[in-house]
Amino acid sequence: MEKMFLNQRMETPGKRVLMTSHGDEISINLALHLAKLGCRLVLMGDERGLRSIIQGRLAVSGDVSGSVEVVGLDMEEEREAAFQEAVDQACNLLGNLDAFLNCYTYEGILLWNLCPEQTPCHL
């Protein structure tokens, strides 16, 4: 049922989607599926890695690579301004957004901004 809902909502060609990606199989398959449905995508993440995927896997899957752009962003950078700049760049490429997908997976150390007594060891 979820697949049918996604197809019904995104089947109108030209939907504009901003998607964060770590270049993993799940996010790339989602990007491929949305591009095949006619969506215009901007992938945000490791620019070199995402461009390589677009030139390889997405281009092989048909004429969808022209509907996918990449905005480089170091997701582990802690400057809020870096994120805002990347989002602004994506919006300049797409215009208004119809959807946002956060598919970036973070596998680093989780930093707690809580009081020491509220960390997982103390909960």
From the helix content, strand content and strand pairing, which structural class follows?
Answer: alpha/beta
Would you identify the CATH architecture? 3-Layer(aba) Sandwich
Kindly state the percentage of residues in helix. 40-55%
Task: Estimate what percentage of residues fall within beta strands.
Answer: 15-25%
Distance between the termini: 38 Å
CATH level-four homologous superfamily name:
NAD(P)-binding Rossmann-like Domain
Query: How is the biggest beta sheet arranged?
Result: 4 strands, parallel
Strand order of the largest sheet: 3-2-1-4
- Reading the helices and strands in chain order gives HEHEHEHE
Predict the CATH topology: Rossmann fold
Number of extended strands: 4
The number of distinct helices, counting runs of at least 4 residues, comes to: 4
Low-confidence stretches: 119-123
In round numbers, the mean pLDDT is 78
Number of domains: 1
Q: Can you describe what's shown?
A:
- This protein has four helices and four strands; from the N terminus they run αβαβαβαβ.
- It has one domain (2-122): Rossmann fold, CATH 3.40.50.720.
- The relative contact order is 0.19.
- The chain has a four-stranded parallel sheet, sandwiched between helices.
- It has helices at residues 2-10, 25-36, 47-60, 80-94, and strands at 16-21, 40-45, 68-72, 99-103.
- Mean pLDDT is 78; it is low at 119-123.
- The protein is globular.
- With 123 residues, the protein is of the alpha/beta class.
- Helix content is 41%, strand content 18%.
Q: What attributes characterize this protein structure?
A:
123 residues; four-stranded parallel β-sheet; 4 helices; 4 strands; disordered C terminus
